[in-house]
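Reproducibility note. Readers wishing to regenerate the assembly model reported in the main text can use the exact inputs given here. Chain order matters: entities are listed in the order in which they were concatenated for prediction.
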Amino acid sequence: MSILINQNTRVLVQGITGRDGSFHTERMLEYGTKVVAGVTPGKGGQEIFGVPVFNTVAEAKEKTKANTAVIYVPAKFAKDAILEDIKAGIDLIICITEGVPTLDMVEAKATLKNTRTRFIGPNCPGLISPGKCKVGIMPGHIHKPGPVGVISRSGTLTYEVVYNLTLNNLGQSSCVGLGGDPIIGMRFVDALELFNSDPETKGIVLVGEIGGGDEQLAAEYIKVNVKKPIVSFIAGKTAPEGKRMGHAGAIISSGDTTAAAKIKVLTDAGVTIVDFPDEIPTALKQRLK
Amino acid sequence: MKIHEYQAIELFKKAGIPVVPGQIATELDEAVQVAEKMGFPVVLKAQVLVGGRGKAGGVKVVKDKQELKKVFPQIRNLKIKGYRVERILIVPTVKIKKEFYLAITIDYAKSDVVVIASSAGGVDIEETAKLHPEQIHKFYLDGKKEIDSQRWNPFIKAAFPETSQQNQISKVFQNLLTLFFQYDCSLAEINPFVIDEKGHPCALDAKINFDDNALFRHPEIQALADTKFEDPDETEAKQHGLSFVKMDGKVGCIVNGAGLAMATMDVIKLLGGEPANFLDVGGSSNPEKVLNAQKIILKNSNVKVILINIFGGITRCDDIANGIIAAQKELKIPVPLVVRLTGTNEKEAKAILAQNKINTYPSMREVVKKAVELAK
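Running the prediction on these inputs yields the following structure tokens for the assembly.
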């Protein structure tokens, strides 16, 4: 099995006529993802790689039964795209866009409350259930179906981790990129909960980094709820204080946002911490025995 | 983005928040004129975008012209955390009856805007939060842009004991909140906010930070940026679409993606080296970006080796390889270069590099090991 997306997922691409949107639509189709609709206001009626384009999400959802939306629109339009999805009752929204204003995300998250819509991102690589469905920008070929759930705040570092897992014959149930912004939709705890109750996920890899307190919340959750083995790598041990390291959320603002602080709480919660990303497969195999 | 106190005071004034009328001086003559017109004693406040100016001696009260002539040049010559003081704000002194801490910021963990108030003003608020958490009062906006008065009343009563203060401060918070949303702030802070001996309320300090992601909709705020407080290399990198942070080591790195870039630095350190920088070339990197990245790294004479670690997704490895070759032709790179490329168009990239006799390494660990060895 897998979490959030599978072979039955019907994907709608917002910003499908844009440069990134069309490029990744083609990659997703190649992977076998059921991309059933595109939305670009004012461009309804066109087709891109055989995918029909609509003016609104509501229309696209009604005509194609799309249940998952992926957003590639520019940052200034991202909030409206998210709000449109929520209003149309989309089940899962994945926002790839980088640079979304923080107060736009505050508004979007407030609108999400008391709805059944799940939200991932922004500033994220998306998610993939290998062999079934890929929604996002990650290179599909490095993945392989299997028993490991991967959760990460990063993009390319996740690829590095997945690549090493696959090289060592550890396939993945699903890989979720949560995003590098300070305000994101799903957080570690939400993804852990899903992997924990997915019977085919046997072990979990958690890729964290400096900034924020999500790793601490994850540690508290793991201590009480998760029996499955977890291996973790935390990036940013050498990052200087007060400097934003590429991701808007990756900044050491106080003592408990350092890599060392996160490593300590995760270790206390029974998580195996590795120093090098390429040590993850061995450590996980050890724990899975 | 941060702005100076005097700029924040202007924004406060426009928003209807009571402030002390001050004036900026850069030279002593100017300062004397301003102070004499204002009437001694006055307060001199260094305008810097870094914290800790009080401890560094950047805020002083002067009682007369003679003292001003002595103290003004002292502050003007200060370097606070490496930054020279160029402007000094001169304000009249205020006889304080009561001090408070007022702020609006974003609680990232709760994804919500939060109003913070404390009757323990004028001191380090983080210290207060640790030692006397009961003195800090918080009000969450619940995703709204206005105050819900039913919830507000108990909050303001708990935070401020006197009825007159409650009204004065509620009004300030209303205005501060309008300003906060109008300009996409990430922090608007008044520490201290005071009631003077005549009972008048007034902001004695002003601090506003803005969300970088939202600057595109506020060109008037962007125009307030003081680039002297940014590292020139970091500013240049930003202009080229690169994310760069300078460090002290010898291994210059170019990586795609922030997480992988941080991890690469960590691995350098674990294998006995020290990174010279953090550099994320971002996604869909064109050859031009790789060329500019190498130019910026080579400005640092400590750099003994350049390490390139790329995991291609949207980034195409052949674009990176072409950027490496372009840099070799244009820059005459004085240090060795070690490269690891995996992912999209890896084969094409390796062929391009092999033609130009540039070695590639098969994994992140191996390329870092080589870089650390060469930097010794």
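We highlight two features of this model. Residues 42 and 92 of chain B are 5 Å apart (CA to CA). The first strand of chain B starts at residue 23 and ends at 25.
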